[in-house]
Amino acid sequence: MEVYGARRMPSVLIVKNEMGKLEGFGQRGAKTYAKFLGAVSALEVGEMLSFDYRVPRAPRFHRLHFVMLSTVYESQEVLTDDYKFRKWAEVGAGHCDFLPGAQGELIAVPRSIDYTSLDDVEFGDVHSAVKSFFRGEHARRYLWPHLSEVQTWEMVEALLREFET
Q1: Do 46 and 86 have their domain in common?
Q2: For 91-121, how does the pLDDT look when each residue is reduced to its tens digit (9 = 90+)?
Q3: What angle do CA 94, 130, 54 make, to 5 degrees?
Q4: Which is it for strands 106-110 and 96-100: parallel, antiparallel or unpaired?
Q5: Residue 29's pLDDT is what?
Q6: Do residue 15 and residue 90 come from a single domain?
Q7: Percentage helix, strand, coil, to 5, in the chain?
Q8: Structural domain harbouring 81
Q9: Co-location of 76 and 148 in the same domain
């Protein structure tokens, strides 16, 4: 919620250092965290400061998702760019916004899946939605057009089996 006259503070990634103290991560993070601490110190009685925080998702889960994408990507021969494949999967999973294009048609624009945009729970939802999309008729027919419906089903199940949790 935006408060009249309030300025939006930049986001900062913080980390606990070897001494057990919080600090900004990296040079930019250190400067931004110092500004945040300065704003906290400068508060006068009755003044408020609002902030949001996120706990970044587990790197292991992030890697698992990308291994899954790579596994499916390398099993098909339709899409030849792994980045475009990933974006296609994200749109297919519904992790996108629809914006008007040049002629007024709706264009799907994938949302970010980076560490700061999604926590583990949100990323888990995207991961599950991508798996569901791959299992869907549209993705199976598109990725393996030379296979029968039963063969595409067997293909996707064999590929995704190791990524079930």
Answers
A1: no
A2: 999 999 999 999 999 999 999 998 778 888 8
A3: 75
A4: antiparallel
A5: 85
A6: no
A7: 50, 10, 40
A8: 59-163
A9: yes
Residues recorded for the chain: 165
Count CB-CB contacts under 10 A for residue 53: 7
Computed on alpha carbons and rounded to an integer, the radius of gyration of the chain in Å comes to 22
Number of domain units in the chain: 2
Integer Cα distance of 130 and 121 in angstroms? 14
Instruction: State whether residue 22 is helix, strand or coil.
Output: strand
- Of residues 137, 118, 128, 140, the one with CA closest to residue 72: 140
Residues of the chain with pLDDT under 70: 1-10, 55-56, 165
Nearest to 108 by CA among 119, 116, 100, 120: 100
Q: Which two tokens stand for residue 16?
A: 């606990």
